[in-house]
Specification:
Layout: E1 4-5, H1 19-28, E2 33-36, H2 45-55, E3 58-69, E4 72-79, H3 86-112, H4 118-125, H5 134-143, H6 150-156, H7 173-182, E5 186-189, H8 199-211, E6 216-221, H9 226-239, E7 242-246
Parallel strand pairs: 1-2, 2-3, 5-6, 6-7
Antiparallel strand pairs: 3-4, 4-5
Helix pairs in contact: 1-2, 4-5, 5-6
This protein binds adenosine monophosphate and manganese (II) ion (3 copies).
One manganese (II) ion (MN) binds at residues 7, 9, 64, 248.
């Protein structure tokens, strides 16, 4: 059986490894099909494709789009997109553009809470021009001694109700799905178990996603428990969408699951790769 890992990040967004190193690591760990899904970005795919060819594994062109839905930020993974599609490229550029001013506002919000220098500090950790993420702030907050590790940061900072959180308008769900479909790809709800939403809210989200043409739910991901694997497999059947699997690996020492570490999909779901 082929091993799929359809969600990970390189230095082109907030991952710690360059695209080629990431691909080599995936190949060494037994991944047969890897999707590189940098946040709001496709710039790493060329390097990843070349490395995948050398390593003898399959690379799926991906991205992870930031979306505002109701009062939440959610992520939509794009798989098998044409990274040169003009509307998609423009859409991703528009999402990325807001990140710079948002980062300044995060810095201001942390300063107001007594933590000075965070914006400049976060920029030291940025590895791709124009893509600053909360993870870069998190790494600086750890370095500056405000938390033990990145996970700890997201308990006390940068999230709703905590210092350093700022609201930000991302793309809409419809925009994200339409850009992905326009570029020939499939749209996947990333790590649904992470969203702070009620059971009825989750059903509303998945219903809107499906009605807008969404293709799959990320059933297996490092943020999910085994119980959530079962829960989201059931929701795939309820909503008539496919199931995906991706580690969301960001780098050694930071992610709690490595590339290729996920188990096979539960029985009774249709894999997102069924017709690939
Ligand atoms: P942004 O897209 O700038 O809002 O940053 C989101 C990123 O922050 C995610 O993709 C993760 O890399 C990181 N992140 C968010 N929440 C957590 C968490 N609880 N633990 C570790 N990393 C997190
Ligand atoms: Mn990330
Ligand atoms: Mn995500
Ligand atoms: Mn991710």
């Amino acid at each position: 059986m082929r091993r799929y890992d359809l969600h990970c990040h390189s230095t082109r967004s907030d991952g710690l490894l360059p695209p080629a190193t990431l691909v080599q690591r995936a190949a060494a760990r037994g991944v047969d099909v890897l999707a590189l899904t940098d946040h709001d970005e496709v710039a790493g795919l060329g390097e990843a494709r070349e490395a995948a060819r050398e390593a003898g594994i399959e690379l799926v062109n991906g991205s992870e789009l930031s979306v505002s839905w109701e009062d939440l930020t959610i992520h939509i993974v794009a798989l098998r997109i044409d990274p040169h599609n003009a509307a998609l490229v423009a859409g991703l550029a528009a999402i990325r553009e807001g990140r710079g001013s948002r980062a300044k506002r995060i810095g201001d919000a942390l300063a107001a809470a007594g933590i000075a220098g965070a914006y400049e500090g976060a920029l030291k950790f940025v590895t791709s021009e124009a893509l600053v993420a909360r993870s870069h702030f998190a790494r600086w907050l750890v370095e500056a001694g405000h938390a033990r590790d990145v996970k700890e940061v997201f308990k006390h900072y940068l999230v709703p109700g905590k210092p350093g959180h700022v609201p930000h308008p991302w793309a809409t769900l419809e925009q994200a799905i339409n850009w992905i479909h326009g570029a020939g790809g499939q749209a996947v709800v990333a790590h649904p178990g992470r969203y702070r939403v009620s059971a009825s809210g989750m059903r509303r989200l998945l219903g809107e996603f499906r009605d807008a043409g969404g293709d799959a739910i990320e059933v297996l991901t490092s943020a999910h428990t085994a119980a959530q694997y079962t829960e989201y497999a059931t929701l795939c059947r309820v909503f008539g969408v496919r199931a995906s699997s991706g580690s969301d690996f960001h780098g050694p020492g930071e992610s709690w699951m490595d590339l290729g570490d996920l188990p096979p999909l539960p029985a009774g779901v249709v894999p997102v790769w069924q017709d690939w």
